[in-house]
Amino acid sequence: MEKQHIDATFCENCQSEILVNNNFCRVCGQAQNLKEVSFHANKKQNLQQIALFFAIEIIVCISALLIENHTIAISLFFDFVMAITAILFFCNNWSENKFILKWPNFSIKKVVGLVVVTVIVSYIVQFLVGHLNRFIFNEDYSFYFTYAFHKYGNYIMVLSVALLPALFEELAYRGFLMQRLLNIVDEKEAIYITSILFFFIHFSMISFFWMLPFGLLLAYVRIKTNTLWYGVIMHFFFNLTACFVEIYDFSNLGF
Amino acid sequence: MENQQLNLCACCANTFAQNDSYCISCGYPLQGTNEQQENHIANRAVKEIDLIDLNKKVETACNSLYWIAGIIGVSSIIGYFTLTDEDDVLIFLITTVIMVGAFLALAVWSKTKPTTALISGLSLYVIIQLLNLIADPSSIIRGIIFKIIIIVYLIKGVMAVLEAEKIKKELNIK
Question: Does A151 lie in the same domain as A104?
């Protein structure tokens, strides 16, 4: 009888020679998936961290909703709170998370390509969202008024709408949350969950047709490139385009 | 090996070689004492029963996603007839359709990706309840027992998925 060739390996416990497809060592009885078992043992703790993180995010975002008159100071205050939350959670497991802050295989071509695509997509989305809001809600939602009457309003708007969220939402979702989730589920599910939670936290049902795909793309790029920075740049340019559309619209109206 | 005897493990019925001390498929102590062998079988049986329990919990949690979709649907139909002229029918309908659709989609998805669907369903349900609370503080009281039951089932479901995977790994079932 000819036997199929199967690679040999050594038992994790007693170093006897066994086959790679053996679940248990035939000499000492040790299960050969110790790493997987210990990986699964830490899941609950990771899940608790995620639950705490998301609960804080929800509380902060809901408190932001409760305030009716958004001033520049209030916007910046919430940006600041989100930033602190993201940094604290991210740094809690600093040694495990720090590698995604590096930028291996920096490619200017990739950056330019992604930025161009992001700007085009963002412009189309702004256009569609504007029409949808007018059609369904009969209103023009704009964050421009918060900043319009300040001397450096435009600069503060870019800071508060584009730069800070790009940095700290990425750090929180594609950074902390993704790293925790990778300890619980596989890459595919981690991509799905981060994008879905990222979409939920914006409290905007109408935006599912672009926010979900955008979240998926950011998460996918983060997994494929093993760095946070492509996501940060894309997120920044996405929001920046929204800012420019607002500024342009309102300058046409004579503000 | 001409006179090969068919040796079957007493625990998992896998074939084993004559000189093996443990079953390579389930870790059964082939050369162990009676006590060791009985312990091994008992331990595995306990874990397998746990696994069945956990899978039931996951199933209940997945079904509660259907329940959420149904309840939102029914309460919206009731709500539809109590709408006043000032309320915007279009916004009401779009909101309802999206929410019912979202929970139905999650419920279907939970059959293949239970972790993702249950975590998403739980988050969405909690967020919806909190947003309702802001819009109308009295809304939290309505059906509070039902809401708590749903949330408990979902949380238990998420925990059970993770626990079930852990036990599968301990049993070394692929």
Answer: yes
Q: Shortest CA distance to A194 belongs to which of B158, B103, B120?
A: B120
Q: What is the pLDDT of residue B1?
A: 43
Handedness of CA A154, A157, A163, A164 (dihedral sign): positive
Same domain, A204 and A190: yes
Collapsed DSSP state (helix, strand, coil) of residue A13: coil
Nearest-angstrom CA–CA distance, B127 and B114: 20
Q: Within 10 A of A63 (CB to CB), how many other CB atoms are there?
A: 12
Domain extent for A4: 1-41
In Å, how far is A53's CA from the nearest CA of chain B? 12
CB A31 within 8 A of CB A37: yes
Probe site for chain B from A28, A61, A185, A194 (most B CB atoms < 10 A): A185
> pTM score, two decimals?
0.86
Please answer yes or no on whether A37 and B166 come within 8 Å at the CB atom. Answer: yes
- The count of structural domains within chain A is 2
Contact between B120 and A44 using a beta-carbon 8 Å cutoff: no
The pLDDT tens digits of the residues spanning A197-237 come to 999 998 887 777 888 999 999 999 999 988 999 999 999 99
Q: Which two tokens stand for residue A52?
A: 């705490």
The Cα of A180 is separated from the nearest Cα of chain B by a number of Å equal to: 14
B113 part of contact set with chain A, CB < 8 Å: yes
Q: How far apart are CA B54 and CA B118, in angstroms?
A: 14
Q: Are residues A110 and A36 in the same domain?
A: no
Q: What is the ipTM metric for this complex?
A: 0.85
Chain A contact present for B97, CB below 8 A: no
Cα angle value A86/A92/A97 (rounded, 5°): 80
Helix axes B34-81, B144-171, angle to 10 degrees: 150
The string over A206-221, giving b where at least 16 C-beta atoms fall within 10 Å of a residue's C-beta and e elsewhere, is bebebbbebbbbbbeb
Say yes or no: A239 and A162 in one domain.
Answer: yes
